[in-house]
Amino acid sequence: MNRTTNPTRRRRTAIATALACAAALGSLATAHAANAAAPSAHTAHQARAAHTAATPYVINHYGEENADKGRAERRPAHLVLSEFTSAGDLHWKQWGAKKAVATGEVTGNWCLDTCLDKPLKATLTLSDPKAVHGRKVFSSFTLKLAGGSGKYDAEDLQGKRPLATG
Length: 166
Known about the structure:
Helices cover 31% and strands 33% of the residues. By secondary structure, it is of the alpha+beta class. The chain is elongated. The protein contains three helices and eight strands, in the order ααβββββαβββ.
């Protein structure tokens, strides 16, 4: 082997080794930064659990099995609003920590002659969450009939009304 090639070869080997180490360190630093930036599955689960705990239920008395005590639910398809009014075919647009909003159909004792077979279209808003038996539940509702309340003179159609919470 030639003496002049040997130092050159050593220099090339040293440079290649240094570049390989730099690449390995760069990969390690990138992976570490990605792990630090992305929440762990455990952290994501904790965030979902905290959000779920902060999201209220509604006490629903819909159905014979729930008529007496009610059942805590989120985003129900049918909901008893009061002893006079119920909502069905609910499509929830929002269900948050402060309020829930759905569109659907409303019937009540106040419109049996006209809306029993043809329920009225309405927007339902649940609000005023409060703690009941260790669980956060909505305690009020507001109904807005499509086209206004018109000929219906019913308490449940006038402003904010209380919901059963227990």
